[in-house]
């Protein structure tokens, strides 16, 4: 065999070997990002202990979680703070890659965005210390009272459903007072402009740990299977898959459970 023929045969065999040794998988397309190398997320930093500002710095469970998740994905987390009601429009307008703001998953929102769930939580009824209105929980003792809730949050729909229960029971209507943030609702209760507030169980834990001399929780936890999640644009399968992978990694290495413990969440919040 001539040297030229040998080299041609060697090249053909080598190419075949390379092709056979190549991994047999198709890599999913990477999601388009607002800024290269960054995970730009929208957050309404008024919902302690999920996202809030302390000493001028953004903090909370969600902030810690997205920081850990972004590290797994080799991306830099980039927050954009805004009012809660502006989050979905900003995501749909491609100003954000995702929403990371303890967003409750419900049918209405699921028609507008896709979700990657990461927690399930319940809610509590919060009243001023001493409970002068003798409210016993999420029951007919709320009838005729002023109930503070976050505008557009699941607590608003819960309170409006409770108002109908009062009317059906031939009791006085309850008044639903809406506020931009849970912190505003708490202030309304402290100032006795509202008789009670509906607040997430983790939020209640944080509020009572800081202001236990001002507030107390009454009655049992309710709606304990309410899921919250990261929101992505409708049909954005690449981003959804990326978040799911990062979330799996922070669960696997124990970071998720450490954050649940750090922020004093009840063990029941875990969905993993």
Automatic annotation (TrEMBL):
The keyword Signal applies. Keywords: Signal. Pfam families: SBP_bac_3. Residues 1-28 form the signal peptide. The keyword DNA-binding does not apply. CDD domains: PBP2_MidA_like (cd01004). Residues 38-267 form the Solute-binding protein family 3/N-terminal domain. Belongs to the bacterial solute-binding protein 3 family. This is ABC transporter substrate-binding protein. It comes from Rahnella laticis. The lineage of its organism: Bacteria, Pseudomonadati, Pseudomonadota, Gammaproteobacteria, Enterobacterales.
């Amino acid at each position: 065999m001539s040297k030229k023929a040998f080299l041609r045969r060697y090249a053909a065999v080598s190419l075949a070997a390379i092709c056979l040794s190549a991994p047999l998988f198709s890599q999913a397309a990477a999601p388009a990002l607002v800024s290269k190398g960054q995970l730009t997320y929208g957050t309404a930093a008024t919902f302690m202990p999920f996202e809030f500002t302390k000493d001028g710095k953004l903090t909370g469970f969600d902030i810690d979680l997205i920081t850990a998740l972004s590290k797994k994905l080799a991306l830099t987390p980039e927050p954009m703070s805004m009012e809660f009601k502006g989050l979905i429009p900003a995501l749909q307008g491609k100003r954000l890659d995702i929403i990371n703001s303890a967003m409750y998953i419900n049918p209405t929102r699921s028609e507008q965005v896709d979700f990657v769930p990461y927690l399930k939580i319940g809610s509590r009824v919060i009243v001023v210390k001493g409970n002068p209105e003798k409210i016993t929980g999420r029951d007919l003792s709320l009838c005729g009272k002023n109930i503070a809730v976050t505008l557009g949050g699941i607590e608003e729909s819960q309170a409006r459903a409770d108002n109908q229960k009062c009317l059906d029971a031939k009791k006085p209507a309850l008044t639903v007072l809406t506020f931009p943030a849970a912190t505003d609702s708490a202030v309304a209760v402290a100032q006795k402009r509202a008789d009670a507030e509906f607040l997430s169980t983790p939020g209640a834990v944080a509020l009572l740990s800081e202001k236990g001399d001002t507030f107390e929780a009454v009655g049992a936890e309710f709606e304990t299977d309410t899921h919250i999640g990261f929101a992505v644009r409708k049909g954005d399968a690449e981003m959804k898959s990326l978040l799911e992978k990062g979330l799996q990694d922070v669960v696997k290495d124990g970071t998720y459970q450490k954050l649940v413990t750090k922020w004093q969440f009840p063990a029941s919040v875990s969905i993993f």
